[in-house]
Specification:
By secondary structure, this protein is of the alpha/beta class. It contains 34 helices and ten strands. The strands form two sheets. It has an eight-stranded mixed sheet with strand order 3-2-1-4-7-6-10-5, sandwiched between helices. Strands 8-9 form a two-stranded antiparallel sheet. Strand 8 and strand 9 form a beta hairpin. It is elongated, with a radius of gyration of 35 Å. The N and C termini lie far apart (83 Å).
């Protein structure tokens, strides 16, 4: 009987992940002629019981701060044609690709294989990075693990298969949490330094020591050992992965010490060295581009952007070289993640140098069709355009030549056509973009449409009522009042075909109007009637009559619960029944604090109207005034400084002699001083 695959695990007492790890190996053990070997360093009987459900091949091992010795204990027992190893805090997402690799016989054509480790930086699984790891190889008498820390499996011979199967690994999340609590020490340094004393000619040991010093922020030491390791590595006939790491990281580590000029010089020397391969040049160009940006060496920076592009294309065309030219944290995939940032730096370099021919070329290199890759960088593209305001026309012109369906590029083409006064072309592009507009781009499209009075149908057809509500709230809040007034006058005629959307924007606009200005009584009542009518019209389409009759009971939206009693109060006021309106105004006051200042204006008007003896009820008015102040106190206690400022301004105009309001005003101004648009 032939064992195709030996799987070796190093297991401590991490019960929180061990079950997932073992369960993920079950398909391999079921579908393949394979064995599971466990090197057990723990003490927990419960852990042993769980392991024994999957294998009886358990090797007790007393931990000695040497990963290679522990791994070799498992390797020594392996009987398979191939060997695979992993830890107890990792588990495979899907092993079908590995199963097929062996079942099909494909494994016979290879000597080794990579699979992917997904390293998470938080326990929620939101931050992670993927890296190919060489943890599978053909088992030979020469196979062994070397180095006590960051152990390596050697020989790792060619040809090598790259698999997409991956394991989840939360070890870095645990390490990050630990390091936040720990002092600047490294538990790995003592054994590594001891190992270096025994073997001072090991470039790989120097690399690992440099990594550890970097992790604790001792960058001068990290540079020292990086230089030593690089010098030793150049004595080897072959170029190993540790030399690549040392080449790429030396200028980076020097930059961490603060000497950017020296870091740039060292990186440039490295590029010229005969032992620097394509992957080394690729990763070095990322560092050198960033250094040139900081040092404002724009023309030189463009040189390294071009070098990055050249080496990236080369390795994409020669994946067999990309697989071999790799080191810890330095793979083709990790370099590809820097594509847009590097090209973005190039755009800034080109604009600074007024080299728009190169800017046009760099724009053509951008992965526009990869929305996930591009999305985080649109703000920086906007920054590029706006930083060079006097060159904006030239920048927009460069987008004109791009062949892509990307929405951001389409908007830049619209803006260019608009500047060229080619309205028909701008409208054609606008309709094309609006019909396929992803979230995040509607803002700019609305602005363009309103400026040029394009029909909004194409955009609104793809916009949900919820998204429109959010847009209406946001645009009303963000625009300065004069700007919002002009915008409102232009957009409202375009919304006539969508009454629901028209009313939503009207409500937001009226709220901003009513909470920022004082009006004559007749105008105030007119605006409040318009506001209530708009809200109640919406509600009549959405809710049954019995629901509208008892808005509180059915927990309708705040605006309607506010507008319903206010509308009834306005009817009573128009009929001259001022006193009867007070309970309704009192109800409205507590429902929607944002509008309490407006209700206060109305109360002041009522006070003036009920000064005749038979209607005089100043005590009632003062009571309601106190309730408005209570609302203001609640906003202050809740830290809602912007809302509090609006209510306070209107309340102060009603009660100018009230010292408590003056004290509250000062608190609001002190606490809310940093809030944008407070005034």
């Amino acid at each position: 009987m032939n064992i195709q695959l030996s799987i070796s695990m190093l297991v401590s007492d991490r019960m929180e992940t061990l079950g997932k790890c073992l369960a993920s190996l079950k398909p391999l053990l079921t579908e393949l002629d394979s064995e599971l070997i466990v090197v057990f360093t723990g003490k927990n009987e419960e852990t042993l019981e769980l392991i024994q459900q999957y294998t009886t091949h358990i090797i007790p091992f007393t931990w000695c701060d040497d990963f290679s010795k522990a791994r070799n204990a498992g390797l020594k027992e392996a009987k398979g044609e191939w060997f695979l190893y992993l830890d107890d805090d990792e588990w495979f997402e899907d092993t079908r690709e590995i199963i097929q690799f062996f079942k099909s016989g494909e494994y016979r054509r290879y000597q080794s294989a990579f699979y992917v480790v997904r390293n998470y930086l938080d326990f929620e699984g939101e931050r992670f990075s993927d890296g190919d790891v060489g943890r599978m190889c053909r088992l030979t008498p020469e196979t062994e693990f070397v180095f006590p820390i960051h152990e390596n499996l050697i020989p790792f011979s060619e040809p090598c298969k790259k698999l997409t199967a991956f394991v989840h690994h939360f070890g870095y999340a645990r390490k990050e949490t630990y390091e936040r609590k720990a002092t600047k020490t490294s538990r790995n340094l003592p054994p590594l330094l001891e190992m270096y004393e025994e073997n001072p000619n090991s470039p790989q040991c120097c690399m690992q020591i440099s990594q550890e010093y970097r992790s604790v922020g001792e960058y001068d030491k990290a540079v020292e050992y990086c230089r030593r390791g690089l010098s030793l590595a150049r004595n080897d006939e072959l170029i190993y992965n540790y030399e690549l790491w040392l080449q790429v990281n030396l200028p980076l580590l020097i930059s961490y010490t603060g000497d950017l000029e020296l870091a740039l010089e060292e990186g440039e020397r490295m590029l010229k060295h005969s032992r620097t391969l394509e992957a080394g040049s690729l990763h070095l160009s990322v560092t050198l581009t960033a250094l040139c940006l900081k040092l404002k060496k724009y023309r030189k920076g463009l040189r390294y952007v071009r070098l990055y592009h050249e080496k990236l294309l080369y390795l994409l065309k020669h994946p067999e070289k990309a697989i071999l030219q790799r080191a810890p944290g330095l793979t083709l995939d990790s370099a590809k993640k820097e594509t847009v940032p590097v090209y973005m730096d190039g755009l800034f370099f080109a604009a600074e140098d007024k080299d728009f021919q190169t800017a046009k070329q760099i724009l053509s290199w951008m992965p526009w069709e990869d929305e996930n890759q591009m999305m985080p960088h649109y703000p920086r593209l906007e920054e590029w355009k706006n930083t060079f305001e006097n060159q904006k026309d030239a920048i927009l012109r460069e987008y004109e030549h791009l062949k892509t369906s990307n929405s951001y590029v389409c908007i830049q083409k619209i803006l260019f056509a608009e500047k060229q006064k080619r309205k028909q072309k701008a409208e054609e592009l606008w309709r094309e973009c609006a019909a396929n507009c992803p979230p995040g781009f509607q803002w700019e499209l609305f602005e363009i449409a309103v400026r040029n009075q394009f029909s909004l149908e194409a955009l609104l057809d793809h916009m949900s009522p919820e998204a429109w509500n959010e847009y209406s709230e946001t645009v009303t809040q963000r625009k300065e009042w004069a700007e919002m007034q002009a915008f409102y006058q232009k957009i409202m005629p375009l919304l006539k075909v969508r009454p629901f959307y028209e009313r939503k924007l009207e409500q937001c606009f009226l709220e901003k109007l009513l909470t920022r200005e004082l009006f004559e009584p007749a105008k105030l009542i007119e605006l409040l009637k318009q506001y209530c009518t708009s809200i109640c019209t919406d509600a009549s389409f959405l809710y049954k009559e019995e629901v509208l009759a008892k808005p509180e009971a059915f927990a309708l939206p705040t605006r309607y619960r506010f507008a319903a009693p206010l509308k009834d109060a306005l009817r009573l006021i128009e009929a001259g029944k001022f006193i009867e309106s007070f309970p309704l105004l009192k109800d409205a006051l507590h429902i929607y604090p944002k509008m309490s200042g407006t209700v206060g204006q109305l109360l002041r008007y009522l006070e003036e109207e009920i000064q005749s003896p038979k209607q005089a009820v100043p005590e009632e008015f003062m009571l309601l005034g106190e309730q408005v102040k209570q609302v203001l106190r609640g906003l202050i206690d809740g830290g809602q400084w912007t809302e509090a400022y609006g209510v306070m301004g209107q309340l102060l105009s009603l009660l100018p002699d009230d010292l408590e309001i003056l004290r509250m005003k000062q608190e609001i101004l002190r606490q809310g001083a940093g809030i944008q648009n407070l005034y």
